[in-house]
Amino acid sequence: MATRRQRGIPLSSLNPKFLHTNSTSHTWPFSAIAELIDNAYDPDVRAKQFWVDWTRIKGLDCLSFMDNGEGMTRARLYKMLSFGYSDKKAVKDHVPVGIYGNGFKSGSMRLGKDAIVFTKTRDSMSIGLLSQSYLQAVKAQQIMVPILTFRRDGQNLAEDAVSLEAILTHSLFSTEKELFSELRAIGAAGPTGTRIIVWKLRTTLSGETEFDFAADKYDIQIRASGSERSRERRAMSPESDWSLRAYCSILYLKPRMQINIRGERVKTQLISKSLAHIANDSYRPAFLTKRIRITFGFNTKSKEHYGIMMYHKNRLIKAYERVSCQRKAERKGIGVIGVIECNFLQPTHNKQDFDDTEQYRKTMHNLSTKLEDYWNEIRYRRKKDDPRCTIPIEDTAKAPDQVWVQCDSCLKWRRLPDGFDCSRLPEKWFCNMNHDPQFSRSCMLEKVEQEKSSLSSLCNHLKQDLEKLSGQIDRGAGPEREEAERKLSKLRLSLARLLVCFVPALNLEHVDVSSEVIDELLDQVLEEVT
Amino acid sequence: MATRRQRGIPLSSLNPKFLHTNSTSHTWPFSAIAELIDNAYDPDVRAKQFWVDWTRIKGLDCLSFMDNGEGMTRARLYKMLSFGYSDKKAVKDHVPVGIYGNGFKSGSMRLGKDAIVFTKTRDSMSIGLLSQSYLQAVKAQQIMVPILTFRRDGQNLAEDAVSLEAILTHSLFSTEKELFSELRAIGAAGPTGTRIIVWKLRTTLSGETEFDFAADKYDIQIRASGSERSRERRAMSPESDWSLRAYCSILYLKPRMQINIRGERVKTQLISKSLAHIANDSYRPAFLTKRIRITFGFNTKSKEHYGIMMYHKNRLIKAYERVSCQRKAERKGIGVIGVIECNFLQPTHNKQDFDDTEQYRKTMHNLSTKLEDYWNEIRYRRKKDDPRCTIPIEDTAKAPDQVWVQCDSCLKWRRLPDGFDCSRLPEKWFCNMNHDPQFSRSCMLEKVEQEKSSLSSLCNHLKQDLEKLSGQIDRGAGPEREEAERKLSKLRLSLARLLVCFVPALNLEHVDVSSEVIDELLDQVLEEVT
Hints:
The structure is a homodimer. By secondary structure, the first copy, chain A, is an alpha+beta fold. Chain A has three domains: 10-202 and 254-265, Heat Shock Protein 90, CATH 3.30.565; 271-401, Ribosomal Protein S5, domain 2 (2-Layer Sandwich); 443-529, no CATH class. Helices cover 34% and strands 20% of the residues of chain A. The first copy, chain A, has 14 helices and 19 strands. The mean pLDDT of chain A is 85. At the A-B interface, strand 1, strand 2, helix 1, helix 3 and helix 6 of A face strand 1, strand 2, helix 1, helix 3 and helix 6 of B.
């Protein structure tokens, strides 16, 4: 094995076998799929929609993942095909799930032996190949990642010819035409986006794909063996353990992106809104200054599936994690679900667990105490309300305390009037269908609010500029002062033109730019919009 | 980020941050230490002894790991500092634990920010640095791994000068003399071996090391916070969860290597031999042709810690894993431990779990059924033996069915007579201390057996040679036949010299090398030694 060096010092090398090694952290295939969904969700891509599909290409079962996010430049694609180069940053309140720069590699290589990435930005289209079969075929000693870029300005790289040949020889696509047709597929979803195809999917011992594509044509399910026992085990476990549709419906605490599986939109669940007997509690870990909100309630669908739904930066890490009081012989907290977002804990490599630190253990201990308090409280209240009732609370039928529905246009969740019959909801629902004024907020209103908010930030900037110039005039003298006065007059004139939309009485032809009239008007408008 | 290429195709790159990413699969620090122990245990290193120590170097807490195995050549050290280059192979019945080529990187970088490796083979001594602090300090964009080799023949590499300078500047050791003193430390353990020092150890939020070195001066324990609750939680959990000594005592199903922690030998536990009411069962998964042995029994130390001890290729993967019947409300199988070696399952990235496949789920389901059978059987037998007994079986005091002790010389486990009082065992015990002839097998006997075995294999080889030459004589003619006859005579003479040790009546001066006397004598000896 030849040693590559940098500044005279050996560089650590990457064996193709490491692709498999690195993927073994995903013990469960949906955890691998979640990595690819996270990549589209994260603020650097900000896709509005995501599609997961099963497709057959040249006789092979494939999984395809597509988003209409921002796409990747060649440099970003190269980073995605390398290890540890995450430079995801939070954008406003949208915090990235990805931090490790490893999701695509560990996820795609867990699902299949080979993957190809097609991506389109406003200026370029790129293709990258990460393929264990290819590396084996060429007996590679290092991980080679053929990359190909088509720039909109036509300035394509001459050295890409070798990569193109490798892709055409070793991927599912043997002509440039076939590659372009995949790039065009992105166009159907939006001007930019990314499309990933994974093939040579992992199979079970009997040679079938680990996913069952036939059980439900609108779902991707983990294959169960045909045995009676296997069916029994499945019936006992939460649906999100084996149905991708069910898992995606709870993957994000506050959904920002629409996920579609095999053509059908996933109806996201706001889990904390689907519970009965909801109570909010909070918890301040000793090592934090802020209190963390915890929502408790009873599962309204099944009393068998309960425990804590633990999120981290909006993403589900552990589902139905039973706390110690739920595991003991006396079995407290049956049917009780807790929802918490633990941004203060560290998720592990596969984002299916938290690092087992003292903080984690303390958190679990406290969650158990609080869940037990909630359980006792609910039982006490029930006893008081109806002293003769003998049916345990977990065995009674329950309906969610509140009814919530997601708008198909703005993706926001809206509360419906109490007692609303969900079966009356249409297939597609929009904000303006909410007739009860108490709960009505239309998407249009939403847009006006957004405009107000950007106007307010603009006005604030202008106000600062006004104050700065006034300050310069007060302190300055001679030509400097004159210059500031000139600028101030100009700014007031621009401002007047802006403000006339809000103050129709303002006569633009008679504005006195030397007085503070305009400044006062600005203050008034500011007050109104904030 | 510059793109490195091979055969014109971009090479996937490794960011220094990936060292941390890769280490996050270890959610528990002992799982990281176990990786370093496995490396010494595996057949390519075959250390007889392993030492884990806490040491302070230049005011910093360090962990040191040393073995007296075969050491690494420069090429192997470079592979260890790279990713995915495992070429471990089974040697006879000694199957390697490591398969992924990732243990050292993920393990050492979980424990601390920086690590240095000193290794000695018969021909060379090498030093390698894997340091996150160093890579940060030089603002590396790739993982650079300074490596330095001193060959016994004095032919050192000129290009190592840059690596030497990096190591002296960025490691704990600032002079060549200090480096040599660490290499010399290996000499105390054997002519060859490896010594790893990890520093900038991970700390808790309060800034203390995550390990507590003060609680027990012969142990390395996971630090517990001082709170009452924290102490309670610890008292409830198995000792192997927080004491490295307890964990190492059960790390291998059949120990092959002596582990020493802070100067004291770890008394390995043969877990399946320490149980009460032992019963052996077996299990043949549908996808295997061989039956797998399962040992059930009651924990004789604590009824609180129970479940399955799941090994893979001799290495502990999951401890006290409760099966479904032990988790249900009726609480069956309390206090029952099962021991199984599941070589047919795939361990995950961190070797603390198995891949969640249909095979795994089936195995767990079957283990639950078998454990429940065992539990019912034991309770039935007890009821029959003593119908009036009302104390649940899990609450009675129990002693192990058999008493076993490990020989401090040959490391083999020996059974002691039933009813033997363990408190009478001396601190160090050797095979020849076993006076009961029924159980007595001395190490000496062991050695004779080993000699017999190698003699038998030698004799078999010689017999094949004899037969080959006889065949050539039968088929051959002319000079070829003469040549074969000459060789046969020579071989018979050598054989006679060997056999005289076993057949003193043989007169070397009158051996007839043309007859088959010697061949017959060989057959007799062969019969005796096999």
